Amino acid sequence: MVKGQSLTYSVIKAPFSSDRYDEFSPVYYKNGIVFQQIVHPLNFQAIFWTRQGTSEDLLYWYHSGVKWENAKLFSKDLRTKFNDGPVTFNSEYDTIYFSRNLEVEGKLENLSTVRNKLGIFYAVLVGDEWTKLEI
Description:
Blueprint (H helix, E strand, L loop, with lengths): L21 E8 L2 E7 L5 H7 L5 E7 L9 E2 L10 E6 L5 E7 L16 E9 L2 E6 L1
Antiparallel strand pairs: 1-2, 2-3, 3-4, 5-6, 6-7, 7-8
């Protein structure tokens, strides 16, 4: 006997999603949502060989108390030319945890592996800046 799932689900576009870019990995942050957006999807092989990075940003979409405001860059302190995120926060929202591509020194052909190098990082909010960036 084969049993199917009794509940049904609908997939709908999130309010912060655009028709032009890829948005993903939303998490709650204070009065809004932090999510990732790939602004210019590029050929990953070209990114890897040229080391130009992707145009992937962490954006913050927040509620002003009256309406949802346009998404903006979450933090220039956390932005690199490679992938930053997905992210999560502690319960006080003063520590962010995220994955990031590691920039490896040296020529590509001299590396022991051409696989992507990732690290898990965290940073602490001091005033309006994310500081104490650690791996």
